[in-house]
Description:
Helix content is 65%, strand content 0%. With 162 residues, the chain is mainly alpha-helical. It is globular, with a radius of gyration of 18 Å. The chain starts with a helix and ends in a 7-residue tail after the last helix.
Amino acid sequence: MTTTNETAATDTPVPAPEQRISVPQLAPDYYQAMFAVDRASRIGLDPKLAELVKVHASMINGCAFCIDMHATDAVKNGEQDHRLVSLPAWRETPWFTAKERAALALTESVTLLTQGHVPDAVYNEAAAQFEEAELAQLIALIATINAWNRIGVASRLSPAAK
């Protein structure tokens, strides 16, 4: 049985891990170039879909900073909380459209390249749901969020306490 004192002690927030390195400070030209790539990767994509993709890739990669930032942005773009929290189980939920499902499957395949590359079935489904230029933008977006996730995880970026 847990006492009141034990409960209070376990409810105390744990401090975020210390950031290892500041990429913006130490590689500023690269960091600014990443912002330009990020802006370019979103051109022509529905902002709500783009944020779903970013949150999903960030969840797969375990980037707390990006999960927090893009979930917040998704909500600002009108995304519903229940859809965000169910992203890890999107295949088992009824509330993602065929287009969103194709984007989420492609996100998983591109993010987890070492687990079978991008299967033809996944790519073909995405190609059936997206115009060719939009599909190219989606691939660019997925590649870009994966780069951001690697920066965030390697440098131990942490979301701000709320």
